[in-house]
Design brief:
The structure is a homodimer. By secondary structure, chain A is an alpha/beta fold. The first copy, chain A, is about 40% helix and about 15% strand. Chain A folds into two domains: about 15-45 and about 270-365, Aspartate Aminotransferase, domain 1, CATH 3.90.1150; about 45-265, Aspartate Aminotransferase, domain 2. In chain A, helix 11 (about 270-290) packs parallel to helix 13.
Amino acid sequence: MPTANSLVALLPATIPFVGPERLERENGGAFKARLGANECNFGCSPDAILAMDKAAREDVWKYSDPEAWELRQALAGHIGISMDELVVGPGIDNLLGLTVRIFSDTGDPIVTSAGAYPTFNYHVAGFGRRLVTVPYRDDKEDLDALAAVAERERAKIVYLSNPDNPMGTWWSGAAIEAFIDMLPDETLLILDEAYGELAPDGVRPSIDTGRRNVLRFRTFSKAYGLAGLRVGYLFGPADLCVHYHKVRDHFGVNVMAQQAAQAALADQKWLEQVSVQFEAARKHIAAVAAANGLVPLPSATNFVTIDCGRDGDYAMRVLKELNAREVFIRKPGAPGIDRCIRVSCGLPHELDYFEATLPEALKAAE
Amino acid sequence: MPTANSLVALLPATIPFVGPERLERENGGAFKARLGANECNFGCSPDAILAMDKAAREDVWKYSDPEAWELRQALAGHIGISMDELVVGPGIDNLLGLTVRIFSDTGDPIVTSAGAYPTFNYHVAGFGRRLVTVPYRDDKEDLDALAAVAERERAKIVYLSNPDNPMGTWWSGAAIEAFIDMLPDETLLILDEAYGELAPDGVRPSIDTGRRNVLRFRTFSKAYGLAGLRVGYLFGPADLCVHYHKVRDHFGVNVMAQQAAQAALADQKWLEQVSVQFEAARKHIAAVAAANGLVPLPSATNFVTIDCGRDGDYAMRVLKELNAREVFIRKPGAPGIDRCIRVSCGLPHELDYFEATLPEALKAAE
């Protein structure tokens, strides 16, 4: 019978993130607090809902515009770049896979922090590249070490998220710019700014298309509340962007995604008010952690990572006890940062439930 | 600066299908008849619209179930197979790319008919495989020649669509089964049944999971009217399906797609009535062709391919004259079949407009 090629044959069948839906099927019921996937539990702009209603009735039978022209035009205008400096895709996950596929070859070294985004690592393995990792330092990605390893390995690609997932920490835009200057010219920096809209001023470096080796990734899945629709984008030099059009799925950004994202982008007032909700939720989570003797890390994202103060096994027990009590959370997995759990912002009633449940979970985890 | 690898560097930046939206931007107005993309101009099931309304309000902020559990369960039940014999993906296009990636290696021969699905060829080129083509014969894919070339080349993959796009013709299920028996055991047959729901009885071979080297591809983009949502699936031996889970984008099948597809699948009565609409539209298109001295080919799909009776240049002029008159159609491109144009089923008023426009277009194309 047919066989997979030698690369794929050796890969594991895996899911970088087990879905809460699987846990719910196994638990036999829905979670009372969905605080594990860094979504926007506050929903999306009402304008985006109206756009979806219209698309459902008028447009969903059509293939989407393979050039996503109107959305790209709106995004380019919003950012202040030209349309050929921007690529839209069905989520950052998809764009990360294409980036690995395009800008590296079999066996090439690719650098990331140990414990950073698993889906990026999944694509690196999936295309047979060689992952080289650098430990977190003081719960932040270690810029000096990342640059040194990139230099030593002549890395094709370095992945950095700022603000960081899973730790919630961040570097200033100035520090990121200095980091870029340290990288070899031929090393591509994937700057994952999935949480960028939620970060304080000064965290995002200036838009500088003069940098020839940086692609910045953003999404409608986090602050904009459209994770289920799959729409992300990247921007940077046009002569890097052009390669995506050679290998992408042209109809991959669906009709709903294109139209809802455009409506969401136009409703910046909604983004402002949801940012206030996220801030209140972060404070709530941090207060709950502190009240239980745990240490919340500072966060520039839609989640708060909490130092449980012991080893990884203990933090895993805390996670499992919360999951067993219908609170869905996730946690960092790499040595050093695995002492933490990660709690996404949720609705007030979800955080109240988390608050009521955490003491029991901690007791059970002893 | 960073560079694409040697494979991607040499690929053209291309779109297998230029979208009607681009033509509309260039023409400065919308088409009056959208008859070029083999969509379902009759829309989708009202139950699917209700599902989308609900998802827009309740679920779209969540990441989709990466296992698409409920949809896979429904599809497996509908077909009468087990869930591990089925893979759901964001459209057949995406699944074709994964299939090339998984079941062949750089430089491996892959066989298809000259003028068959361009997006498949795009993925073959995109992964650096070697495309070997076989001419159509009597406006059908030439099963004997495809099998002979697969044997000669020791092809890793053979692509066949039945019913066929772009010709609309078909082989019986029995002929397809005999074709499978002719293929080398190690050659994977991609049996693209995108138009399968619209085919007469006997066109689809029996569901026989005993065949170890066949994957069958279906979609919600055609008869089900959900092209804009991106949801397709494949089914076949579980030990072939398992490889997709090693390399696919896990969140790629969006929330809307999963829920609307499930609702559409459950509404088989809607499928029955839309099939009647498609049949009436095929007859209308065929009658218009015949009334203008052209020869409509028999069709088991949602389009009718029309033999314009001269060479490819003439048929291209007919297409351009129709497009210039706000009728969007496409046409086969390969020598021999390029004498045809391809007209998708449309709403009665669209076909009336096509009927009124074709005589002028033919005159202008002289």
